[in-house]
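Much of our argument rests on the idea that a fold can be written as discrete symbols. In the encoding step, the backbone of a single protein was reduced to a row of integers, each denoting a local shape. We regard such an encoding as a compact summary of how the chain folds. The record that follows shows the chain in one-letter code together with its fold in token form:
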Amino acid sequence: MLSSFEFPGGYYEMMRRDFRDLTAETDFLASYVPDGGRVLDLGCGTGTNLRELGARGLSCVGVDQSASFVDYAERAGGEGVAYVHGRAEDFTSQERFHLVYSLFMTLNYLPREQLRRTLRNAADRLLPGGHVVLEFGHLLNFVESYQQHTVAHHRGDGVLITRLVRQSLNPHAAIWRNEETLLVRDADGRVSLYDNFFDQSVLTGPEVRELLADAGLTVTAEYGGFRKEPAPGHGRGPLVIVASRTGEGVA
């Protein structure tokens, strides 16, 4: 599995706004944490979610492999938020958390052979009564969204980002490769170019549920989004799974 997200975090924040509902994500995550609780974000990107959770009085730790994104997150600040530069699957700590979560397809970016260990580590990081929240893309996400070449534009604060994307498939490994070129025109007219690529494992709901059970976690809820809407029967779109330690209370 390969990935590279080494481009300025401010550009990522712009693109993220076009894809995500930050208010819904924050409300959803906060609903699983007591007042003043502790939160761990595996694959935190530029810290967008953590800054919002920290503003609600939570103590937060974020882990991300992108040095550029972690640098942006640290400069952006945020009350009660700390960051670790490293891969989610390698993160270890003696700290325990009320909530461990991984959003925005981070689970798909992890090497398939590391998923079991990653989820076991996540379970080990939980305080009694804590929860794991996973959002991931599954089979029909990839099948329906596949386009060999796409062009997208993102605008904000006088900046224009043109994203040129090429997708390819390794069917034997069930991996989608995304190769992106970001062409950025800043507000002052300066133009810059960035290469961005990542592999994504094509996961299925049963596969992730089995891995959670192996980690000693019980699925307590499944949703089709962060407004807690039911997961659609047709299986399209991302899946959000909430799990807790086996034998502990359901949220």
Notes: The domain at 3-137+203-245 is CATH 3.40.50.150 (Rossmann fold). The chain has a mean pLDDT of 90. The radius of gyration is 18 Å. The CA atoms of residues 6 and 80 lie 25 Å apart.
